[in-house]
Write a structure and sequence with these properties.
150 residues, 14 strands, 4-stranded antiparallel β-sheet, mainly beta
Amino acid sequence: MKGDKYGNTLILANEGYGFKKFDISDISQPVLLAAAIYTANAPGFCQDLKFSANGNYIYGLFQTYEQFRIYDANTLALVGFIQDIGGVGYGTTDMLVWGNKVYIDANTGSGDSLLVIDVTAPAIPFIDTSFQINVNDMKMNNNGKLFLCN
C-alpha cells in the first residue's frame, strides 16, 4: 500500500499483513528488520504509515478496528489509538505529519473528511478538528501550510 522513510529506515503498509520495517542503508540490499503481524486482538488492513516528525513513532491508518494507531518506531509496540476516525477507505486515504498534528483525508462512505489529530501525548491521541471536504490530494509546504485539491 503506502509507506514512509526516516533516515535509513523504511516502513511499508502491508495491507492485511500489518506492516514491515526495513533498513535501507544500502538501497540495493534492503534488510527486513521487523514485521508487525496482527493477531485476533489487533487485526486490520494497514493502508498508510507515516513517521512522526522526530522519527520516534509510527502513525498508521487501518480499515478495521483501531483505525488510527501509534507505534513505537523502535519496538513496534502499540502506544495509542483512536478506535473510529470515521472511515479509512481502501487505498485512498492520505496522511501528512506536521509537528504534533497528523492530517488525514478520511474516505468515509458518506464523503471525505479532513481530520486533524493531535498526537502531543502519543498514548491518548484525539481528533482536534474535523470537517467534510472532498480531498483528491493534499500537500504541505515547508512552513506547514496545507494545500488541498478537490
